[in-house]
Amino acid sequence: MISEKMIKMAEGGSAIRAMFEEGNRLSQKYGRENVYDFSIGNPNIPAPEKIREEIISIAENTDPMELHGYMSNAGYPFVRSAVAESLNRRFGTNFTGENIIMTVGAAGGLNIVLKTLLNPGDEVLVFSPYFLEYGNYVSNYDGVLKAVPASETDGFQPDAAALYSAVNEKTKAVIINNPNNPTGVIYSEEKIKELAAALEKRQAELGTSIYIISDEPYRELAYDGAEVPYITKYYKNTIVCYSWSKSLSLPGERIGYVVIPNDADDSALIVSAAVIANRILGFVNAPALQQRMVAACLDEKTDVGAYDRNRQTLYNGLKSAGFEPVYPSGAFYMWVKAPDGDDKAFSQRAKKYNILFVPGSSFACPGYVRIAYCVSHDMIVRSLPAFKKLGEEYGL
Amino acid sequence: MISEKMIKMAEGGSAIRAMFEEGNRLSQKYGRENVYDFSIGNPNIPAPEKIREEIISIAENTDPMELHGYMSNAGYPFVRSAVAESLNRRFGTNFTGENIIMTVGAAGGLNIVLKTLLNPGDEVLVFSPYFLEYGNYVSNYDGVLKAVPASETDGFQPDAAALYSAVNEKTKAVIINNPNNPTGVIYSEEKIKELAAALEKRQAELGTSIYIISDEPYRELAYDGAEVPYITKYYKNTIVCYSWSKSLSLPGERIGYVVIPNDADDSALIVSAAVIANRILGFVNAPALQQRMVAACLDEKTDVGAYDRNRQTLYNGLKSAGFEPVYPSGAFYMWVKAPDGDDKAFSQRAKKYNILFVPGSSFACPGYVRIAYCVSHDMIVRSLPAFKKLGEEYGL
């Protein structure tokens, strides 16, 4: 018998990925232009042209031994330093290359951090709704994920009082995701300060270290001039997991980094252990060519304006069809109330109109659905009459 | 307290990596040309020119959305098919793309396979000497690695009778590494047949499935016309983990694949679970650009002749200095007896002559050392007088 844990997962599958396959099936049947697939967070803005130029230039001008050879498991020192300096310029932090570990995306980063932190039975808190994959990452290291509901009445901002109550002596970490998948909410500076105060208080009471693991692939996707607070400045036991998947539209390339600040408890030990975790989990190091590429593209930006335009069109369209979306301030997701509260039925009914989105149950939060608007603006415009009909079916 | 397992590892470190750092330290002190660093398996033959050309061509000619976007967690279907067809042409196998999962190198492949197969307490056998990292990979999934000595009297070929005796009802897998790191031995077809027969017999007796996990990054590095048997043809419960790290000199890029044949017990379930493991361990998928690149370079070869020349020069030099190396038929490692049986003291003494190699204790096999000859031929020639002096110190 193979791993029992894995058999269960193989039978369960991923709801989001299943939706992705469903989209392909519908597209083959009805034609891609007649299917409105809002199910997956695959950026639809092409990577900036400089990405292409740098890849070519690196391939042309770098000795292949240097380009493709092994380096330290933490990544190239010059890349780590460049990342640290870029963060310092942008956020007034004080990192050096020693605080940075280059990783195979944020998913790789989260795994090495959790492997480094967790003893079996340790608890990790997360605000729901949340990206269910966190549960798998925590379970990989025999930790226990516990969800604390975000505040529905406060636009899905995190609830510091609820967090405070959920922390116990087994709590090793809190994963936050800001801007948030699936709600599109940006946690305000005020809320971050509240979270930090609650955790500081609880750490002092319990005499333990509780780490915030801040998963930030959507950091650069913020609208209306919103600031996304840099969490290490508010709470010293913060570890940041970053990825260029969304910010530079490179999700297939698996390139990101982890920040472990000097101020964090056991900082040096965590850095050493996380570098070893990077090696023994089989990542070994972040892909070499892409490390060099991102170091040359740290100031590149995706076209946030295009996502913003999608956001406005979809939000207004859904409102005028009678739906109740949460107005998103970041990421490329819209969180919409299921008209009769049944998110799964809502997602099923939408398929009749060739509209695909993901029920909130897949984010541990029934009653809502996630609509990913990282799609062509044209598709959004074409989908609105279908949404209108869907709303009419609900008597909206 | 962070993970106790990881704290121990952070304190232990990797002997091979420590040697690598030592090499850098000595180089700074004495000049790189006066240090003979044989410690690490970093290929010194540049990647074939076609790698560069393909990377440039892919970057120039592929739409960035297609090039850098998400794909199935198993990899691009066209890449998986191309790999299967290439294997079928070379080895007379009968794979399709469905049997192939693209991975973040062989280390990533081994991790997803072990996560897929192991329940806590399951045993994994390996022939010693072996790459100690296997112990970490197995331990990641709460398995127990047990070493079976290879036959020293039979030139470190695997010992089927010893394997048979070591298998019990908890044995889930046997990792073999062919050509072998650290011995440079190629397991002969006869030995593979003996291993297969022993495992078939034991499976029948116990009523269990026992998988061979064949770790094959050195497959293309075979000398004197030696054939490296393709294990799936001899034993149906075989899973192959491959990497282009050594065969195309791309260790920093982390690109490889896993083969799960239809004939293996629970094949379809293992494929599904391994694809999920690829996702939830945080690999998500093998790096996108490098997948496309290798698909275009499946017939490329590294310059095995250059390694062969190194092999001859080093072997003859060591022999004439009085040492006793095992004549290697594959990979780029030479396995050499410590003159007085103390491999750690031998490695220490060698440092006096600025020679760096790894004690066999780091491969669970004291009494020998590993000399990695993936270095410049010139360095080997320059090192021989130093080896001569080292031999004289032992009275050779």
Strand content of chain A: 5-15%
What gyration radius of chain A follows from the Cα positions, in whole Å? 21 Å
Quaternary structure: homodimer
Which structural class should the secondary elements of chain A be placed in?
A: alpha/beta
Measure the end-to-end span of chain A. 52 Å
Which two chains touch over the largest interface? A-B, 75 and 75 residues
Poorly predicted runs of chain A: none
**Mean pLDDT across every amino acid position of chain A:** 96
Shape of chain A: globular
User: Would you count the extended β strands of chain A for me?
Assistant: 13
The DSSP helix count of chain A reads 14
CATH architecture classification of the largest domain in chain A = 3-Layer(aba) Sandwich
Task: Give helix % range of chain A.
Answer: 40-55%
CATH class bucket of the largest domain in chain A: Alpha Beta
Query: Strand order, biggest sheet of chain A?
Result: 2-8-7-6-5-3-4
Order of helices and strands of chain A: HHEHHHEHEHEHEHEEEHHHEEHEEEH
CATH superfamily of the largest domain in chain A: Type I PLP-dependent aspartate aminotransferase-like (Major domain)
**Under CATH, the topology of the largest domain in chain A is which?**
Aspartate Aminotransferase, domain 2
How is this structure best described in words?
The structure is a homodimer of 396-residue chains. Chain A has 396 residues and is of the alpha/beta class. The first copy, chain A, has two domains: 137 residues, Aspartate Aminotransferase, domain 1 (Alpha-Beta Complex), CATH 3.90.1150; 247 residues, 3-Layer(aba) Sandwich (Aspartate Aminotransferase, domain 2), CATH 3.40.640.10. The first copy, chain A, is 43% helix and 14% strand. The first copy, chain A, has 14 helices and 13 strands. In chain A, strands 2-8-7-6-5-3-4 form a seven-stranded mixed β-sheet, sandwiched between helices. In chain A, strands 9-10-13-12 form a four-stranded antiparallel β-sheet. In chain A, β5, α9 and β6 form a beta-alpha-beta unit. In chain A, α3 crosses α11 and α5 packs parallel to α11. Chain A is globular and about 60 Å long. Chains A and B meet through α1, α3, α4, α6 and α7 of A and α1, α3, α4, α6 and α7 of B.
